[in-house]
């Protein structure tokens, strides 16, 4: 019976030895937001596009155009509630279109613009070139943003499942060995040694 206590003591010492110290930093799948008003969707922060805010901006732009507003006025109105990158693109296009600039020039974006602004710019220029209403293109952009957000959320959930399996295995395997296998082996060893079989 004293062998069981020795094994249990050794397992406790090993467990205390491998416990992370207080200096270890715990990481999450998504870092906590810096402010309360910041987007919390899968770690989206101010330096990244929020796909749902972009989709809402596309939808609002489409609603304004469907109600009969000119493109310049609709872009100006949407720029007040759109995310920062999209708002800059809309504000610039609204000002240039109000001054009578060519739509191809008004909807140009810089090379380092986010994907949402590039997509909006390409769709608006294509629509202006064809002379058609951009409402349908805006609706498709909103659907694409939401579908991409759903795919990203599913991928993050799958990554979380894979990432959590390692620590779970690291915790449960020693516990299984200590509580399930070691007592059986010690009990059998005690019977074999006491019975004089060896």
Please estimate the helix content.
55-70%
The Cα radius of gyration reads 30 Å
Largest sheet: none
End-to-end span in angstroms? 18 Å
How many E-type strands? 0
Query: What is the structural class?
Result: mainly alpha
List the helices and strands and how they pair.
Elements: H1 2-18, H2 51-66, H3 71-79, H4 84-98, H5 103-106, H6 115-130, H7 135-195
Keywords: Cell membrane, Membrane, Transmembrane, Transmembrane helix
Domain Type II secretion system protein GspF: 59-178
Main location: membrane
Q: How would you describe this protein?
A:
The protein has 198 residues and is mainly α. It has helices spanning 2-18, 51-66, 71-79, 84-98, 103-106, 115-130, 135-195. The protein is rod-shaped. Residues 36-47 have low confidence and may be disordered. Keywords: Cell membrane, Membrane, Transmembrane, Transmembrane helix. The chain crosses the membrane at residues 6-27, 168-189.
Quick take:
It comes from Williamsia phyllosphaerae. The chain is an all-alpha fold.
Give the tags:
mainly alpha; 198 residues
């Amino acid at each position: 019976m004293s062998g069981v206590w020795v094994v249990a003591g050794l397992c406790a010492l090993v467990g205390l030895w491998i416990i992370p110290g207080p200096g270890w930093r715990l990481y999450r799948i998504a870092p906590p937001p810096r402010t309360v008003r910041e987007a919390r969707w899968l770690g989206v922060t101010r330096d990244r596009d929020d796909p749902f805010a972009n989709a809402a901006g596309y939808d609002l732009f489409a609603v304004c155009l469907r109600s009969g507003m000119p493109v310049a006025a609709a872009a100006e109105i949407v720029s007040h509630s759109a995310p920062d990158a999209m708002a800059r693109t809309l504000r610039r296009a609204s000002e240039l279109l109000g001054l009578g600039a060519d739509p191809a020039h008004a909807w140009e974006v810089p090379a380092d613009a986010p994907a949402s602004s590039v997509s909006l710019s390409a769709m608006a220029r294509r629509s202006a070139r064809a002379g058609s209403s951009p409402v349908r293109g805006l609706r498709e952009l909103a659907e694409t943003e939401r579908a991409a957000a759903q795919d990203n959320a599913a991928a993050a959930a799958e990554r979380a499942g894979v990432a959590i399996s390692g620590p779970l295995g690291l915790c449960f395997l020693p516990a299984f060995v200590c509580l399930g296998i070691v007592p059986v082996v010690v009990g059998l060893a005690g019977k074999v040694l006491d019975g004089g079989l060896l």
